[in-house]
Amino acid sequence: MTSVYDVAQYIIEKIGAVTTMKLQKLVYYSQAWTVVWEDNVLFHEPIEAWRNGPVVRELWNATRGDFRIQAVPRGNSANVAPHHREHIDRVLDFYGARDAQWLSDLTHMEDPWKRAYAEGENTQITPADLSEYYSSLTSDAAADEQEG
């Protein structure tokens, strides 16, 4: 199974060094959309609702104290399966050029973070929450295309 460290390392190799906050949000969206597209998780480490948006605590601990991340300890992009790379690449195509604050603000407008954070800081955002919310976005987009 791919770890969050492997996913984060793959992201850095694709787009270069990023801030800790941006890396956390890109990892989050990679997990969210993989759950929708595959009905399975990309990595098993839990995602928590923190003040600045979703955070994988294990990744945060591994990169703690670094503002800009150039490599992830224990991360090996070779562990990311080709079909998962395609998912992450799609996420990066859409979210990768956005800055960390924009990504954080976006997560604050979305139900998975809002619901978990309302229960208390550090509450887990479950794969089921990700699936329910982000699947509805794809359904809405498909309905909009059919109406248009």
Q: What is the topological layout?
A:
Layout: H1 4-15, E1 18-19, H2 20-38, E2 47-50, E3 53-55, H3 57-63, E4 68-69, H4 82-95, H5 100-109, H6 111-119, E5 123-125, H7 127-147
Antiparallel strand pairs: 1-4, 2-3, 2-5
Helix pairs in contact: 1-2, 1-4, 2-4, 2-5, 2-7
Order of helices and strands: HEHEEHEHHHEH
Largest sheet: 3 strands, antiparallel
Low-confidence stretches: 141-148
How do the strands of the widest beta sheet line up side by side? 3-2-5
Shape: globular
Give the DSSP E fraction (strand runs of 2 or more residues).
5-15%
Q: Give me the Rg, rounded.
A: 15 Å
Number of beta-strand segments: 5
Helix content: 55-70%
By secondary-structure content and strand pairing, the structural class works out as mainly alpha
Quickly list its features.
mainly alpha, 62% helix, 148 residues, two-stranded antiparallel ribbon, 5 strands, disordered C terminus
Explain what you see:
By secondary structure, the protein is mostly helical. It has one domain. Helices cover 62% and strands 9% of the residues. It contains seven helices and five strands; from the N terminus they run αβαββαβαααβα. The strands form two sheets. A three-stranded antiparallel β-sheet has the order 3-2-5. A two-stranded antiparallel sheet has the order 1-4. A hairpin with a 2-residue loop joins strand 2 and strand 3. Helix 1 packs across helix 4, helix 2 packs across helix 5 and helix 2 crosses helix 7. The longest helix is centred in the last third of the chain and has 21 residues.
